[in-house]
Amino acid sequence: MVAEGKCLARHDNMVIFVAGVAPGDVVDLRITRKKKSFLEAEPVHFHELSELRVQPFCEHFGTCGGCKWQHIGYDTQLYFKQKQVKDNLERIGKVPLPEFDPILGSEKTRYYRNKLEYTFSNTSWLTKEQIQSGQEFDRDALGFHIPGRFDKILDIKHCYLQPDPSNAIRLEVRKYAKEHNLPFFDIVKQVGYMRNLIIRTANTGELMVIVQVYEDRPEEMQALMEHLAVTFPEITSLQYVVNAKGNETFHDLEVICYKGLPYIHEEMEGIKFRVGPKSFYQTNADQAYELYKRTRELANLTGNELVYDLYTGAGTIANFVAKQAREVIGIEYVPSAIEDAKINSQINNITNTTFYAGDMKDILSDELIARHGRPEVVITDPPRAGMHEDVVQKLLQVHPNRIVYVSCNPATQARDIEWLSEKYDVTRVQPVDMFPQTHHVENIVLLTAK
Ligand SMILES: C[S@@+](CC[C@H](N)C(=O)[O-])C[C@H]1O[C@@H](n2cnc3c(N)ncnc32)[C@H](O)[C@@H]1O
Predict the structure, then answer these.
(1) Alpha-carbon dihedral of residues 3, 6, 10, 14, nearest 10 degrees?
(2) By Cβ atoms counted within 10 A, which residue in 34, 93, 216, 407 is the most buried?
């Protein structure tokens, strides 16, 4: 099992990456892509199935891009996730490593997400058998993109990722749109009405639903909103967006709140986090709590430290650790996330945080450090691309006592750690599983100044 959840095979000294198999399967492969140094292939015939396999529980497994590791038992998934972290730190990081803390598995391995986003399409995905049968099928779909296909949507019957009433809401919106002849969007021709449905189920019980449509049809929207409000009185934030752009992103559009409040709250240790329609919040809230607790523990705060929380998003980690620190500085690219971060401090009476919006390599400047002082502790949680080299250089120059590096991409984390190893030792490694049934793994590394 190697990167991106693919398996590795060899033939004539050539490396072949294969998706949709398990280590130990004996299969015939068809080569789908040839590169100079490797090949990619798909299985065409299974001779023997691996002992690591289990029966996938979802009818959409194999077609849907969502939970590609359902055919492997959860303990085995955890084993491979931990191994992925180790391989990256050894091969890319090339630094001396302590013994790893065992990966923190997720208690919930199904229904663990608090946010799902479904797309409407008038060109649903059909299987080869369906096409060959010559029968007519309903081509309207509400579900997920087929991996690698921007124009094909898999109509989802039941999704195991988000708790109730997520499935019921999706099915009801689909049924209503069909019954009322609201056309599902055609992404190629850019015509239709129903575009996208977002459901957010917070751990406080609050529930947000956002319907995205292509054009302004006030009467139809009013009727749809009213229907949802009556059918699901538990919705605490019912919203819609009119989006006539070529794509589904709506960060630059007005989101209209039809019923309830324009936001919901997540909660951790009594700290409330306000989550608006455009806000980012970790999608596995229970595991986010475990991740943050471990991050705080490794930061080893006594209440006297100045902490910089880099890539702070909506200030979640910054606010979570604020009580145990003297002062926390949070930095993040997205201005609306920084607005959320400030609100999250206010509503929790946290007064020792300061937030800045902008590109990390510009904001983390000598001037900022002169203003706030040299941090004893830096917590950094960059996007998948890792930290910009200038940011790493700045950290080496500022030289905090401890850096707690949280990452969703062990490869870029390992690269950055190699750079940081000039002045830091890796003293703890704690992988965390935020996304059961997928190959994704989160990892926390504690770096201690040499
Ligand atoms: C993995 S998220 C971390 C979120 C946050 N720590 C949390 O747990 O909710 C990475 C964050 O980095 C921000 N980001 C990406 N590139 C950035 C940059 N160049 N400068 C500052 N922030 C950036 C993203 O907007 C995103 O909020």
Answers:
(1) -60
(2) 407
